[in-house]
Structures are given as C-alpha cells and as structure tokens.
Amino acid sequence: MKKPILFLVSTLILVLCNNCSQHKSEMDKFVDNLLKQMTVEEKIGQLNLLPIGFDVTGPRLSENVEQKIKDGLVGGVFNTFTPNAVRKLQEIAVNQTRLKIPLIFGYDVIHGHKTIFPVPLGMSATWDTLLIERCATAAADEASADGLHWTFSPMVDIVRDPRWGRVSESAGEDAFLGSEIAKAFVRGYEQGDLSKQNTIMSCVKHFALYGASEAGRDYNTVDMSRIRMYNEYLPPYKAAVEIGVSSVMTSFNEIDGIPASGNKWLLTELLRNNWNFGGFVVTDYSAIMEMENHGSGDKAKVSEMSINAGVDMDMVSEYFVDELLSLIKEGKVKEQTIDVACRRILEAKYKLGLFADPYRGLSDKRAETQILNKEKLALSKEAAVKSITLLKNDNNILPLDASKKIAFIGDLVKDQRNLTGNWSGAGDYKDAVSLWMALEKQFGENKFFYSKGCNIIDDVELSAELNKYGTQITIDTKSPQQLINEAVQTAMKADVIVAVLGESFGMSGEAASRSNIELPSNQQALLKALKTTGKPVVLVLMNGRPLALQWEHNNIDAILETWFAGTMAGEAIADILFGKANPSGKITMSFPRNTGQIPVYYNYKHTGRPFSQNEKYTSKYLDVSNEPLYHFGHGLSYTQFSYSDIQLSDTVMKENGNITASVTLTNTGKTAGEEIVQLYIRDIVGSITRPVKELKGFKKIMLQPGESQKVEFIITQDLLKFYNSDLEYVAEQGEFHIFIGGSSTTDNKSRFILK
Ligand code: NOJ
Questions:
Q1: What is the CATH number of the domain that holds 667?
Q2: Residue 294 in contact with residue 259, Cβ under 8 Å?
Q3: N or C end of the chain: smaller count of CB under 10 Å?
Q4: Are 536 and 559 spatial neighbours (Cβ–Cβ below 8 Å)?
C-alpha cells in the first residue's frame, strides 16, 4: 500500500510545485535578472512577432528575419515549423544574440496540426468537451514535436451571421456552450503545465466581438451595447481566461469607436483589472498598422495607443520596433510599460521551459512517431463521426442498404482537397480519405455508380479568385448540361441517389464572406434534375457554414451535414451512411431559411409585438417565417429518444440554494445511439428584458435500444445570473421556466420561483 501513496504524494507535490510560490519566485528572480541586463531596444525586440512564409517545398527562412533575430529585434516567429527549420532559427537566437533569449514559435494550429480534425464549427456539433480536449491535446502533441510552442487557438467569437466565412472556426452562436468549448481547447493544449514538452500555449481570440462584424463582411465594423456584450459575447473569452489561457489575441474590429488593438478599456480595464488576466496580449496580423486605416492616427500615434492600451506583442506591423524608442524619449510611453510587456513575454518563455531547453519538444523521432499515427487517425475519425449531423431523414432513408444500387453524384464524392477545410494548419490534404476511397476500401471497386454531375461552382471569376490561394475548383471541359445529363443517366440505373455537394474549402474561413449562402446555382440545378428521376435522394453536405437550404429541405429525402470533417472524413461519412455509426451531432448555429433572415438565432428576445398568425402589426416578414429552417441544438439519430416530464426537487429556490431538475431519457428505437440532452432556462420578468430561453446545461448520453437513464441537472443561482443595466452580475427573484429536451425547440417544460 505504501508505494501508491508515496507516488500520489510526490505527484501532488510536483503538481503543486508548478504553481507554488517558490517556483513563481524563481521565475521572478530569473526574469528580473534578465530584464536588468537588457537594453530598451532588446526589450522592444521581445515584443516583435514576425511571420516567416512558405514556399512550395516547405518553410523557408528569410534573410531579413535572420538578421533581425541576430540583432535582438525579434521575440517570436510564426508560420514556420518542422524540427529542422525551428532548430535552425532557434540556434541563431541562442548562439548569435547577446543575451541568448530563445524565440517563441507560433502557428495557427486550429483543428489539428497534421492530423486534421473537423473544422471547429463541426467539432462544436459534437457537444463533447472531453473529445474536443483530447483533439487539442493530440494537436499539441504533433505541433510540439514539430517545434511549435504556441497556437493561435481557440477562436471563441460568438457568431450569428453565417455570411461571415469565419463561422467555420467558431463554436457557434451560444455563449454557454462556447464557454465550455473554449475551456476544453485551453485545457487540451496546455494541460495546466506548459513545462511538459508535448503541450503548447493557447491563445484565445479574437478579443473581442470579431464575430459581430456588420453584414457578415470580414474585418467590418462592430457596434454593440455593453449589455449585449457582457451577456452574449464576452463569456467565452472570460471562460478561457479563467481556465488559464496563456495569451489573448486582439481582434481587427473596433469597439465603441476604438480599434481593439488600441482599446485601453478592453485590454486593461476589462481584461487585466476585472478578469485578472496574467498572460500576454498579442495583436492580430498587422492590426496596429491597420489602425491607421481605421483613422486612429499616424504610425507613431497608433503605436503609442496600442502599447498604452495593453498590447504586449505586435504581430507583423513592426511598429513597436520602429516607434517605441522615440515614443519613450518623447515621454509618450513609459519605459516601465515596455518592462511590463517584455516581462510577460519572458514569463511565457520561462513557463514553456525554453530557457532550460530552447529546443523543447522538437524531435525528429517524436515527429515521426507522433504525427499522423494510428491513435491520432482514430481520434480524427471519432471526432468526424461525432460531428456529422443528420438534419433530415424522411422515411428512414438513411442508413443505406448496401445491397441496393446506389449512385454517388457530385464533385465532392472523390475529393480530398477540400476535406481538411480552411485553416488546416500543416495538414496535407493528400493524407485525407475521400468518401470514394472509403467506399472502395469497405465495399471494393465498382460496387457503386459514380458521376461528377457538376463542378463545385461554374462561376469563372469566383473560381479564379478562390484558386489564387490553392487550387480548389477545377472546371470541367464538359458543359454544365452535359455533366447533369450524365449524372441523371447514372442515377436512373440506381435505387437511391446520394448527392455529395457543398462548398470548396476556401468558400468559408477568413476573408470568405458570402452574401448568398445557398448552394451554388449549378449544384441546385443538378439536384433539381436528380429530383426529376423520382428516385429517393440523399444530400451529403460538405461546407464550413450553415447554408440556406429551404428548397433542399422541401424536396430532398435526407440531408446529412458533414462539415469539412478532416483527415478521416470519408471513412466517417461512409460509416454513417451505411449505419456502422449512428449520427449524434447537433447544430450549434441556426440554419436560416434564406439569407434575408440573418441574423437568426435561438436566444432572441421577444418584442412588444411577438409574431401572431392572425394579426397584421406583429413582428414578422411577409415572405418568410421568423423561424430558422433548422434550430440550434437540432440533429437527428437513426434511433428515437423519448423524454419524461421534468421532475424538480423543489418549485422554490431559496437564496443560494439549488434545485435539481431531472428527466428520464429512453431510447425507444432499434439502434444504440447518443443523445445530447439540453437544458434551457427562461427568466420570465427581469430588470432588463431577458431572452426567450438560454442554454444552461447539456449532457451526452449513450443508450442501447430500450434502455432508459435518469439525467439530472443541478440548477444553481449562478445559472440564473446576468449582467443588469449597471453591469452587475445578478440573479433576480421571480419565476423561471426550464426546458429539457433534444433541441432548443423542446416544449418539455417546468417552472420554479427564486425567492
Ligand atoms: C489573421 C487571423 O485573423 C488570425 O486568426 C490568425 O491567427 C492570424 N492571422 C495569424 O495567422
């Protein structure tokens, strides 16, 4: 018995030691000592983050950057990796600079490093925070082996406008779920201990409100009330800070007329003083420079604003390096401000263990054994399976019966290029398994019919634009009509048609906003032609945002949303199509009926004139319903679940008391399946108006056919709190309604009073 206890005690000491004051004071002593030796120029150099580009053969070094590193003018670099490339640059920093301060290496490891997981919007559809944490840990393992120390993830911007291409990088529209997912990413990357060589620092972004850019146009203006900000948009960033995220990235947008990268209220009052953030703040790409375009002042002025607002590291602009010294001389910036910023960056390097081992983590052997290994690929497949969301399934057309004749139609059936989605890190799409590859592996060649049917898009100008950033669209030499004719002929031979359609990877992501989020018109034409065959049609979608699918919903038998599902996409989709796996994803962003409905989200507020069928002067459109096509939290399964009425432990919650709400969930179908049980709460009367409902809990439950399970939620007063008009975080007495069910539309309801 002694040994395990000893082991436990020593582990405890080790864990505690990482945060203990002795450890901290050692870091303080080390950093104090280093700072004393540094010139102001060297301190400013630490605040400089430079990109190093790629050429086709991999990362390359820029002569200029090498010189700047030697001159002590660089604190970190990004966009370069591999043990060799990192070692080469790090050697310059630790052998050829005066103080031998190691560089920090960052990169956008967004949904995997080389093993790619589904795009974050797809990952969020799993509602599986443990799975997301495991994926982040796996990404950190691969990235650190490749020499990286720092990822620019998670992006936790709340999003309500699917025209914005970057919704694919988000966890959707809800602050509660977004906060849980933000924490999972941070835990996964950092594991609470950056001295472990297989961890990397995380960076929560884009602080703040970037997801609310007007009209869904990237980099556009944001304007928002404090009430909305505090209640609906800030919680995920705050959650990341509370769980210990190491760095925060500013956003490109302005807040109350001041760009985030120069916004002292945001970066100092809120982030540092209210939230006690102890890590460092980095700007987004050239964001300080862009403040000139915003109209905030000239180069010197925006540099002054930015450092005085609380930015520690300048990504790309090099404005700090160019301007800070003279700003200090002019008395516009205090040297102490530079010391504070530099200290934060040196502390991050210390915590990563870079002073002890500048080559921490990187190793050819680790890269070889850890990257794209069996476990990572299995995890990628698991994440893909769990992200796939069944939006519609009339007459149980899915799962497919492999003994039937099936025609697979669409450019994306055989596609590998797009499966890894946008921001796919260092992932190589050639590692991705296409749907067709998976079908051939499982069922052999020539088992199913195939026809291309259409290009992803026919628009020549748009394809040229998209192909500038890597070929993703090839336009067939055959005419669109010829492609459709061939597809219809192929479809006529089959019992069931599976159309695999959607977007190319570049149609979502950064700088990829769309003003019309329907399927491209040529794909719609193909679907309409397939529909005329009279055969059942299954639509498999690959895309990075909610699409407007009204026609498809009205006319197609089944719709399976597979997002851009990553390296193992094809296998995951095949398993779901043929019933080897049961879909369990639920959408985290509402799917509108048409683009004009945007923004449409589940936790809206009632107006004074809520919609009523028989009255003219109520809040509505003349030409479309107020309801989205698919609601937040929606997703079907091959089995069915029934919910009992809600049982409450009490109908009165006393101050600082709790109430337990429970339901019995039963799998009433014939297949084992997972259900995401969702808890929503509505505050009936408030000192400020309250949303019609808000997600306040969720649990993912696996049940065998016929099996039942009691699912409990503890409702604490914290769950009832919101920011009132004085921005105090309060729970107000009165009546609350609670809802527990399988989507945000559930009417399984109960009520209690807070006294
Ligand atoms: C700009 C993007 O907005 C940000 O998300 C990303 O991390 C940086 N570029 C670095 O690549």
A1: 2.60.40.10
A2: yes
A3: N
A4: no
Residue with the smallest CA separation from ligand 1 atom 7 is: 152
Q: Copy the structure tokens of residue 640.
A: 């069915």
Residue 57 in this model has a pLDDT that exceeds 60 = no
Nearest CA to ligand 1 atom 4: 284
Q: Which of 285, 288, 289, 313 to mutate to test the pocket of ligand 1 (most atoms within 8 A of CB)?
A: 285
pTM: 0.96
Q: What gap in Å lies between CA 519 and CA 503, rounded to an integer?
A: 8
Structure tokens at 318: 């090099």
Q: Are residues 646 and 580 in the same domain?
A: no
* Cα–Cα distance for residue pair 572/74, rounded to 1 Å: 43
Per-residue confidence (pLDDT) for residue 52, from 0 to 100: 87
* Residue 297 belongs to some domain of the structure: no
For all residues of the chain together, what is the average pLDDT? 95
Lowest mean pLDDT among 57-66, 347-356, 463-472: 57-66
Domain boundary among 573, 588, 603: 588
Q: Tell me the CA–centroid distance for residue 321 and ligand 1, in Å.
A: 20
Residue 102 CA to residue 95 CA, distance in Å, equals: 9
User: Which residue ranges have their beta carbon within 6 Å of ligand 1?
Assistant: 108, 152, 205, 284-285, 510
- 618 within domain boundaries: no
Pocket of ligand 1, candidates 108, 155, 210, 314: which has the most ligand atoms within 8 Å of its Cβ, to mutate? 108
Q: Report if residue 613 sits inside a domain.
A: no
Known catalytic residue: 284? yes
